[in-house]
Design goal:
This protein is mostly helical. The chain has one domain. The radius of gyration is 42 Å and the shape is rod-shaped. The model has no long low-confidence stretch (mean pLDDT 89).
Amino acid sequence: MAKTKLTPQKLARLESRVRFIKGTNRLLYLFTAISFGLLIVASAYPSIRESEKLQAKLRSAQEREQKALDIKEHREIELHALREDPAYLEVQARDRLNYYREGEKILRFERDR
């Protein structure tokens, strides 16, 4: 085969094409990398939102649990007082049965519910 002679013009065009192809390859690589990065971020976003919802539900459940524990503690204290403290037992019984001693003034406050 016959060798083709490279003239300076042909060599300049060839180098120009090579630079263009290299630049295009770099841009495509950059575009592909950015696309994959955005894909990863976009796929993680629903998981983050679901995690936030679950954390809110957890906080709500913990608040309800704390309220239940407070009520339980109050009931335990009241039960202990009813079993061990005769003065508290007397006050509770008189309140429920509407008894009072002579000369004693009873003030009742009704709660708004």
